[in-house]
Design goal:
Alpha-Beta Plaits; single chain; alpha+beta; 8 strands; eight-stranded antiparallel β-barrel; disordered N terminus; 288 residues; 9 helices; globular
């Protein structure tokens, strides 16, 4: 992952996107992905934000809502939380939104939760992305056992889509040949982002995978070849307007996930509440 970050962010092309595929049953990424970003006021994160977000989780749980979402918190960049919801289509997205509006009890609960949560936030925005199988590599993963996202965002200069397409396919082919365990899911921005925005998600089971990924540099370079690396750097400089990579940790207490995820790893997705501290036993009064 960091290797690509050096070659494709330094040369400005693709995100560092390496990860080890899980041995568990993988699932494909959703075709449509909505993301809400909540930027926190200083000192308003941690347990305070988790308590606020629990109201949303409780509202959906009480309604037995069929649509789920995953929460992830930033470990780099500005303090913020992402809430990701996947759909099979834009039509499914529309139906879910309409169903929430028609459910007066759920809508009222969400309004109350939003009002309370808003006191903790400095800013909020949202985006809708569409999955790109063409730009993804081994994207089906055992998401229930993952713990982190590496998310890279690329803004492409107008009129350079062909070069971008060529560059991504070069990187994808080199990884598939030289580092076949690599995986990522690619999305193109549809709403809420500037034109020609591409987002790459890599899931990780632990931060140790970042250390291992650094050892894959030579394998990637060998697969690319000297001429390929030179061409990649030239294309990158020409087509990338801006790019960044950030690191996020899944937060199970702020997520409303499927029962299958909970059953797959209950210790993580349904952590036990910390035991209340025991009260100190009163000492007998001393004889006067």
């Amino acid at each position: 992952m960091q290797k690509v970050a050096r070659f494709l962010m330094t040369a400005a092309l693709l995100c560092g996107v390496s990860g080890i595929l899980s041995a568990q049953e993988p699932s494909p990424p959703p075709k449509v992905l909505t993301i809400i970003r909540e930027f926190l006021k200083p000192g308003k994160g941690g347990m305070m934000h988790e308590k606020s977000e629990s109201a949303f989780v409780q509202a959906f749980t009480h309604a037995k809502w069929p649509t789920h979402y995953l929460a992830a918190e930033s470990l780099s960049g500005k303090p913020r939380a992402l809430f990701l919801t996947g759909y099979d289509s834009f039509e499914a997205w529309e139906k879910d939104a309409n169903a929430v509006q028609k459910n007066s009890a759920l809508s009222a609960a969400l309004d109350r939760a939003s009002a309370a949560d808003g006191e903790l936030l400095s800013e909020i925005d949202s985006a809708t992305l569409m999955y790109s199988d063409e730009y993804s590599l081994h994207s089906a993963v055992d998401i229930a056992h993952m713990r982190y996202f590496e998310i890279s965002v690329f803004h492409i200069r107008p009129g350079h889509h062909k070069e971008w397409d060529d560059a991504v396919k070069m990187v994808k082919a080199a990884y598939d040949k030289g580092v076949p365990d690599t995986h990522w899911a690619a999305y193109q921005g549809v709403y809420g982002v500037q034109d020609s925005t591409y987002v790459f998600f890599t899931t990780l089971k632990s931060a140790a995978e970042i250390d291992r990924a650094m050892d894959m540099d030579k394998q990637f370079m060998a697969a690319m070849g000297e001429d390929g690396m030179k061409k990649l750097e030239e294309i990158s400089a020409a087509v990338i307007e801006s790019s960044e990579t950030q690191f996020f940790a899944f937060n199970p207490r702020m997520s409303y996930v499927r029962d299958e995820w909970i059953k797959a790893d209950p210790d993580f997705w349904k952590p036990k509440a910390p035991a209340a501290p025991k009260k100190a036993e009163a000492k007998p009064a001393a004889n006067q």
